[in-house]
Queue: 2 jobs
Job 1
Amino acid sequence: MATPYPDGAPASGAPGGKTSFMNLDSNVGAMLCYIANFLCCLGLVLAIVFLFTENENKFVKFHAVQSLFLAALQIAVGIIVGILGVILSLVLNMIHMELLGWILILGFRFLLFFIFIVLLIIGGIKAYGGQWYKLPIIGNFAWNTVNK
């Protein structure tokens, strides 16, 4: 399979192989790292397991690392938005507009939630299709982590 990256995809990570854990097809294992997050963070557990068990299959390991980075980014963004929400609420409370602050923060949280859901779905679809797809911002970090 051709890859759009200058380094090329490692041959050992071809999506035709099987995972060491549960003997899944590589593309199914990689997809589950993203999509299984809709089932009470099961994707995080699978990604951590694949991170430590897949020494030969770089394809699954790449998608496991990328999904873990996506989860970490989601947590970090949630904390930052929470802190900014408190600050905005305090400022708007001083001018008796706390309802506006609540609506703004809630709308911003829904927008971020939607963005992360779309990124999980895109990552899962691309992984199932056997593509070495780098998500924006975190894709290069995952690529460099796996290809050290």
Job 2
Amino acid sequence: MIRAAILDVDGVLTYFRSAWQHLHRVLGTDEWASINRDAYKAGLINYRDWALVDALLWMGVPRSWIEIPITLRRGALELLKFLRERDVSIIAVSGGLNYTGIPIRDYVNYFISNELIFDNGALISVKVNVENKEIIDELIRELRLDWDYVMAVGDSDMDLPMLRRARYSIAYNPVNEEVANAARIVVNSNTLYPIIDIARAILGK
């Protein structure tokens, strides 16, 4: 039985693996962003400092340029609707940015991500809410849920905590062997229809 489903957004519900990099490509700032990424990977700045300097590359950009339309992966909305129709609480979590929540906000119970801050219609900063996905453990406790009744779907190292704890853990197109080994089930597919089939088998309907 599944009472809650934790779904990673970037790379699972979307085709792109990073909302940060996707937006950099759209706005033409990816070259500058690579300097920030290298500094973070080298340990010269921490995650919060990296997020701030990265978002500063978009300082003053209109909100309409930031909240760009995105294409959800095939089967994404069908998966969300399937779970909601069966009274499964849906927690969408992203180490990316809150613009990815726009096309799914009517289908999920909770959406957790880093938040771009706007003033007078222009970007001014970022609020880091998801430095790592251990934040999910806090929400699970608040909702008084048991990990034995949780399905988790993720693809990256950031998803390891929830994949290791959830009884029904699915590594979806995992980025490496460690992520694959952390899950009970590994799915490699360009669509999310196999996840619907798995959820249907678990729920028995």
